[in-house]
């Protein structure tokens, strides 16, 4: 007698294989009829409606200067020097920023090696997948973070030398300078323009962190909860590199989160939504220009419940982003309670 789980897996694989064959035969994505229907209309409303909501959140909490809520809740957001320091300062005083730099360099090297091996083994078709977009984004995040950490350490060393000119040589050796002293010294010696550029890139880096974290949670959760149990057929083979691409990115991001002092405001889910929306629009453009395979079956508009699939994936952005935001908040609460003297939150 065939075990139940084997029979279920065989039946599920057969069903999705049949669906795949039907999509290949019946779905001509270059024809006008494929797009001019109610399914595409509903999916477009879902995608572009999400982009409109994301744009409104960015306008209210990032751009507008006239909102009272904005002034009350994010008045420290306009202090550019905090963005600069958050990009390369660890969350615990005893951890030297060089350790964060070392972690980012190691993460970048390992992830870049895994991505290169995956592309060499499979080909550039991997970049049709949202997973590869996310994986590349994580690699860029650690590369960018390594540069900011290295530059922050260089500035810290330079500011230490500037401050040591005004104090006794023995004090400079045995008494560490506070970060506030370093910032004051830099503003006096180098001027406000020196801080403005790294602070802006620190702001961009924080947005990149929040967008990357949400996208990584989405790709890994969909892969392990949907694709592995139900879609692991010939079109979705399990391999070491595939498993690595859907696990190592989250592992390194959690390690990064444990070390850094970056914030995770709720309204920056907007950039995460934009990333996914651009990916969907990219696939629409590609399939409108050429008849090719869909990286994920639920993106195919010829499926009977395509609008429902789009809605479900759109709603998945909420738990994926806010579960990670909850982890960040738990980290800060634990540090504040267990290490009140060592813990540092820059705002």
From TrEMBL:
<feature type="transmembrane region" description="Helical">
    <location>
        <begin position="308"/>
        <end position="328"/>
    </location>
</feature>
<feature type="transmembrane region" description="Helical">
    <location>
        <begin position="98"/>
        <end position="121"/>
    </location>
</feature>
<feature type="transmembrane region" description="Helical">
    <location>
        <begin position="200"/>
        <end position="226"/>
    </location>
</feature>
<feature type="transmembrane region" description="Helical">
    <location>
        <begin position="7"/>
        <end position="26"/>
    </location>
</feature>
<dbReference type="GO" id="GO:0016020">
    <property type="term" value="C:membrane"/>
</dbReference>
<feature type="transmembrane region" description="Helical">
    <location>
        <begin position="271"/>
        <end position="296"/>
    </location>
</feature>
<keyword id="KW-1133">Transmembrane helix</keyword>
<keyword id="KW-0472">Membrane</keyword>
<keyword id="KW-0812">Transmembrane</keyword>
<protein>
    <recommendedName>
        <fullName>Transmembrane protein</fullName>
    </recommendedName>
</protein>
<feature type="transmembrane region" description="Helical">
    <location>
        <begin position="38"/>
        <end position="61"/>
    </location>
</feature>
<feature type="transmembrane region" description="Helical">
    <location>
        <begin position="133"/>
        <end position="154"/>
    </location>
</feature>
């Amino acid at each position: 007698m065939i075990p139940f789980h084997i029979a279920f897996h065989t039946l599920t694989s057969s069903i999705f294989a049949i669906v795949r064959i039907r999509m290949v035969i019946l779905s001509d994505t270059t024809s006008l009829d494929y797009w001019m229907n109610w399914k595409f209309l509903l999916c477009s409303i879902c995608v572009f409606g999400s982009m409109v909501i994301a744009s409104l959140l960015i306008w209210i909490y990032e751009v507008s200067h006239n909102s009272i809520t904005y002034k009350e809740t994010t008045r420290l957001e306009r202090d550019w020097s905090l963005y600069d320091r958050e990009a390369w300062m660890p969350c615990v005083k005893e951890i030297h920023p060089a350790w964060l730099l070392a972690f980012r360099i190691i993460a970048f090297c390992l992830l870049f090696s895994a991505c290169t091996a995956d592309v060499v083994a499979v080909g550039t078709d991997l970049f049709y997948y949202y997973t590869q977009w996310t994986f590349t984004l994580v690699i860029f995040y650690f590369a960018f973070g390594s540069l900011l950490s290295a530059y922050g350490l260089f500035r810290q060393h330079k500011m230490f030398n500037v401050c040591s000119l005004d104090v006794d040589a023995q004090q400079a050796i045995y008494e560490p300078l506070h970060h506030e002293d370093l910032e004051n010294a830099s503003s006096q010696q180098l001027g406000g323009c020196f801080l403005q550029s790294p602070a802006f890139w620190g702001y961009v880096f924080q947005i990149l962190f929040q967008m990357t974290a949400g996208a990584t949670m989405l790709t890994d959760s969909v892969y392990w909860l949907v694709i592995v149990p139900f879609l692991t057929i010939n079109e979705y083979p399990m391999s070491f590199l595939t498993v690595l691409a859907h696990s190592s990115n989250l592992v390194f991001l959690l390690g990064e989160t444990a070390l850094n002092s970056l914030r995770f405001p709720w309204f920056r889910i907007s950039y995460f939504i934009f990333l996914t929306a651009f990916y969907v629009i990219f696939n629409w453009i590609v399939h409108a220009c050429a008849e090719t395979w869909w990286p994920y079956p639920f993106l195919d508009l010829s499926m009977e419940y395509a609008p429902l699939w789009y809605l479900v994936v759109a709603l998945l952005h909420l738990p994926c982003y806010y579960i990670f935001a909850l982890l960040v908040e738990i980290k800060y609460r634990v540090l504040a309670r267990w290490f009140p003297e060592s813990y540092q939150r820059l705002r």
